[in-house]
Amino acid sequence: MSLGPVVHAEGLTRVLLVDDDPETSAETVSALDGCDSLDVAAVADPLAALEAHAESPFDCIVTELEFDGTAGFDTLLRVRESPNPPPVILFTRLDSEDVVREAFAAGVADVVDKRPTDVQLTVLAHRISNAVVAARQSTELDELYAWLQVIAEQSLVGLYVIRDGRIEFVNEYLSNLLGYDTDEIVGRPITDFIVEEDRAIVDESLRNRDHGSVESMSYTVRVSDRTGELTTLEITGQRAVVDGEPVVVGTAMDVTARLESERLLRRSERLTRQIISSLPDMVFISEPTEFDVVYINDQFENIWRRDVSYLYENPRSFLDLVHVDDRDQLRRAIDEMFTDIRDGVVDEQYEFEFRFIPEGSENIRWANARAVPLLDENGDVTNILGVMSDLTERISHERELAQQNARLDAFARVLSHDIRGPLAVAQGRLELARELDDDNHLDHVERAHRRITDLVEDVLSLARDERSVLDAEEVPLADAAATAWEMCSSNAGDVCCEIGELPVVEADESRTTRLFENLFRNALQHAHRPRGDGSDDGGEPRDSRTPSDREGDGELVIRVGALPSHRGFFVEDNGPGIPASIRDHIFDSGFSTKDGDGNGLGLGIVRQIVDSHGWIIRVADSASGARFEVLFDPVGEAGTSD
């Protein structure tokens, strides 16, 4: 007779035999000890068995039904009250089926017929192993179930099981989210708790998973509790099969606060971008270790007049619009900032000031850029925030104020000193003429009045607003220079003016003539050397010598000519020249080197006229004498009066 393989429990199984028949007990112990996996001990009554198990727990108890004619079996079953109780096997003669029925009803694990045969003892050993394995598995399952209960109840997310669209299980977290007790939820359709607008999402998801078209899915729905309060849940589900039937096992998490935070963050980002875009300044954000632009507002295109895509592709491409004199310095400053960041010695702010020329324009503009390293909680640089402001209007306003102040100072000086001088001369000479009846004094009066007239004209010219609209027309510069020399030559004596070929330009003819006139007067005033015969009234015949002969004789020669490529023109003389120490001030209104004999307004008027045309004037180096150069196109020029 084949009994099949004996199932052995893992490890040595300790068995306690309870039998008051010494002979039978010894025979049973001997037979069971023959099994490698069993360690058998024996006692004679149930009370002794309880004591032995309490002292050192056994894996299985094998007991007789009656002891000395009494039913001590019930006493022995009290072992089930101990933690992890061992299985109890009834090993007795089975004279009635009622014994078997009552034994199983009492809670025994198995019943084995007690017959004095080797087969029955083998059966007993087999049943002991099976009972111990089953008990251990049951204990493990109980422990696992206990752990699952703890995990489910302590989980920070909702857990659920759905079968046929109805809720089979929810943990406490999810029941709290739904606003009901667990027993109020289990058995109800899941859609009972979903707002009507989102139920189609759940129905479609469950249908797909029940039919096996998808294994898992994730979606967001809103649920309503018994008070009508809405909660947004992020649902995940996985298809599984339990007892041959499909179920959906998944999680539910309250994302109401997260979604609201994301909404507010998106709104904040949108508002921030709108604010930054509306700023008059250019705002940009760069990577922390190199100049790599990750964001820039629309003002870049408005200020630089270049498509922003160029800057994203090549962040340093803007440098080719920076003034040539400032380009290398700005490039070095940017490199030094990123070197500081890489070396960990970053400053709170970096500031740069430079000039630039917008694309397609010829006008120089001034800019100020500030770069602020943004730090994280560890003090590491995460990005560079930059702000660039166009300072052109401010600088122009400051220059205008400075010019106005200079003009006011000049006016005050002219009124307080320069006009008083010739006026006093005229008054004194007029009194002498009356007293002595000598008309020669009236010539001095006339010259004093002429001087006062020149002063008034200069003051009025300087007082004009240089920003007024030019009466622009085509002006031959040679004709304007000739007209200006004609007005100055009456007091020029033997000075020669040589006017070369000059271009025709768009300009204000009156102002241009005034420009030449003041440059000529400046040369006459500071460089004129009389011939020594005292004739300065222009009454003698004009000298027939050439300009080179005159220059060779040490006489003053003024030349006017065009610069290379007709970029401008020059006015120069062979006089003593302009010392380098005063070149930075000669265009300041009121500055003069002729003590008591000059008002210092002439060159200030010259620069005003030049500025009004968008030109630039500079003092150039010359082998001898003074040389002024006026440039029509100032782009890329260094060392100008500006």
UniProtKB/TrEMBL annotation:
Residue stretches making up the Response regulatory domain: 14-129
Catalysed reactions, as listed in the record: ATP + protein L-histidine = ADP + protein N-phospho-L-histidine
Region named Disordered: 526-555
Keywords: Kinase, Phosphoprotein, Transferase
Domain PAS: 164-213, 268-341
InterPro entries documented for this protein: CheY-like_superfamily, HATPase_C_sf, HATPase_dom, His_kinase_dom, HisK_dim/P_dom, HisK_dim/P_sf, PAC, PAS
Keyword match Transferase: yes
Enzyme class: transferase
Biased composition (Basic and acidic residues): 530-553
Molecular-function GO terms, alphabetical: phosphorelay sensor kinase activity
Presence of keyword Transferase: yes
Superkingdom of this protein's organism: Archaea
Domain Histidine kinase: 414-636
Pfam families linked to this entry: HATPase_c (PF02518), HisKA (PF00512), PAS_3 (PF08447), PAS_9 (PF13426), Response_reg (PF00072)
The protein's Enzyme Commission number: 2.7.13.3
CDD domains named in the record: HATPase, HisKA, PAS, REC
Domain PAC, residue spans: 350-403
Name by which UniProt lists this protein: histidine kinase
The organism of origin for this protein: Haloferax marisrubri
